[in-house]
Amino acid sequence: MRGLLALLLMASAHAADVERGRALVADRAQSLCLLCHSLTTAGDPNQGNLAPPLDGIATRLNAKGLRDRIADMRRFNPDTVMPPFRSTEGLRDVAPAWQGRAALTEAHWDDVVAYLGTLAKP
């Protein structure tokens, strides 16, 4: 019973948060999402145009699909330019400060997926 309680407390301490996810997606220094993606098909001069727009992503992918692609898009497209945010394998030219570290923590990953899960077609 004590192990189950610890597990539940740990899960609630890291509950995904849509607003934190929105802030992470918008943070061009931490998640880098908007360097390549825009939030809408109309685009934004301060957002990227190298990758598909994120609007409507929740109608195309469920939470697992989002998690898998953010974790390592190379599994779906070996030629992708999207960095593997949860993998450290097979990378080159990694700054010493980031060697062996995933770009997103588990909590950040959960928050980003929670936010992207709200992006349905208007």
Please give a structural write-up.
This protein is an all-alpha fold. It is built from 6 helices and no strands. The longest helix has 12 residues, at 2-13. Residues 4-12 have low confidence and may be disordered.
C-alpha-based Rg, rounded: 16 Å
What's the mean pLDDT score? 85
Strand content: under 5%
Shape field: globular
Q: Indicate the percent of residues in helices.
A: 40-55%
Terminal-residue CA separation: 45 Å
Which segments are poorly predicted (pLDDT under 50) over 5 or more consecutive residues? 4-12
Helix and strand string, N-terminal first? Answer: HHHHHH
Count of beta strands: 0
Work out the helix count. Answer: 6
Tell me about the largest β-sheet: none
What structural category arises from helix and sheet content?
A: mainly alpha
Properties at a glance:
single chain, 122 residues, mainly alpha, 40% helix
Short description:
By secondary structure, this protein is an all-alpha fold. The chain is 40% helix and 0% strand. The longest helix is centred in the first third of the chain and has 12 residues, at 2-13.
Give the helices and strands, then pairings.
Blueprint: H1 2-13, H2 18-26, H3 33-36, H4 57-60, H5 63-71, H6 106-116
Helix pairs in contact: 2-6, 5-6
